[in-house]
Design goal:
The structure is a single chain. The protein is built from 15 helices and 8 strands. With about 375 residues, the chain is α/β, with parallel strands linked by helices. A hairpin with a 4-residue loop joins strand 2 and strand 3.
Length: about 375
């Protein structure tokens, strides 16, 4: 059960100029995008950049400092990743630049991206997936009733801006929503930028509205999409994709497989399996059936109501959802108006019905689509 840390032991001494970038490298770069790079990595238009090694050391110093506000880490294995990258010849010398990270509650957008020179004549543009903020999660749910979300527009604009500053070929990638943003940006940039894109790495990312998939821009970059999902994938099966995916093995189960630290690696790739599990297909069919049973306005009203309840906690992110915040949510449930209560009950009832209709999926193996 080798993971990305084992891979770094095997390949950490080989720079990209000696051993070409592979799918496992994309996972590591996508994981790196979740690290708190604020105040460390230069933004767009700022000169130079900073090595991954130095950036990792600076984040670790912040974590150790009692006087400095501690940056939040999303994953428990992030400290080990920081230590490993700081001493890695393969990643440590790569330079980070063009970092952006902002949240706009009013527009319901959470967007972050960073560029990485990989010392092989190519630049890897990484889009961060959903962070710990509630507005980021709300934006994800908005995909169920919006053809385009604000973060996708920001991703397309970011690619256009950074491509004008970068010479040479490009790679794009991201995990979860970040993979979706990478594909959307590639599909919605000018043809001269598209021609510079070598690959687009999508790691367990949700899909798109059918109009996006049927667009000319999407068709132009479809064959460069490298999509990977774990065998119990939930997020990576959502919405429509329009491209093939490779199923990989994870040491975790269920939703925990979304964590890339659980993905199993080889010396230059990830461990592949034949297909997703029956459980993944069951969840996929259930969620699709549920969403299809609701019209656009019903989807919007339900998720608006759901996040209105969460917002009553006054917490802005998952780490802030402590006892007092939860107690406010419980209190707010008692004051929900009757139309909203009926909407929530009816919508959840449709979810239960969708699950009941698809229960036989757990008993009937299907071929990988």
């Amino acid at each position: 059960m080798a993971n990305l840390f084992d891979y770094l032991k095997w390949r950490g001494d080989l720079e990209f100029s000696k051993s070409p970038l592979n799918p496992t490298d994309s996972v590591i770069l996508c994981q790196l995008s979740y690290l708190p790079l604020d105040g460390i990595v230069p933004g767009p238009g700022e000169k130079n950049g900073i090595s991954i090694s130095l950036a990792s050391n600076m984040i670790m110093e912040k974590l150790k400092s009692a006087s400095d506000p501690k940056p939040r880490l999303m994953y428990k294995d992030d400290p080990q990743l920081l230590n490993t990258l700081a001493s890695s010849d393969r990643f440590g010398k790569c330079r980070l630049f063009g970092y952006v990270n902002h949240i706009d509650t009013d527009r319901e957008v959470q967007f972050s991206a960073v560029c990485v020179y990989t010392n092989d004549g190519c630049c890897f543009i990484v889009f961060r997936g959903t962070d710990l903020s509630f507005v980021g999660w709300k934006e994800d749910f908005n995909m169920s009733f919006k053809e385009v979300i604000p973060a996708q527009i920001e991703a397309a604009n970011y690619l256009k801006m950074m491509a004008s500053m970068i010479k040479g070929p490009l790679r794009l990638g991201g995990h979860s929503k970040g993979g979706n943003l990478a594909i959307y940006a590639a599909a919605n940039c000018r043809k001269r930028i598209q021609k510079r894109i070598r690959e687009i790495y999508s790691n367990d990312a949700p899909g798109f509205h059918k109009n996006v998939i049927e667009s000319e821009g999407f068709t132009a970059i479809r064959d460069r999409i490298r999509s990977y999902i774990p065998q119990d994938s939930v997020v990576g099966m959502l919405l429509e994709h329009g491209y093939d995916y490779t199923v990989i093995k994870s040491s975790q189960a269920g939703l925990l497989q979304h964590d890339m630290y659980s993905w199993e690696m080889t010396h230059n790739n990830m461990v592949h399996v034949d297909s997703v599990t029956l459980g993944s297909r069951f969840v996929d069919k259930t969620l699709r059936g549920w969403i299809d049973s609701l019209d656009i306005e019903q989807r919007k009203q339900f998720f608006d109501a759901l996040f209105s309840i969460i917002n009553s906690s006054e917490a802005k992110s998952l780490p802030e959802l402590e006892f007092k915040a939860v107690s406010r949510i419980i209190k707010s449930l008692g004051s929900i108006d009757e139309p909203t209560r009926n909407l929530i009950n009816k919508t959840l009832g449709e979810l239960f019905n969708a699950a009941r209709r698809n229960i036989d999926t757990l008993l009937k193996p299907e071929k990988n689509e």
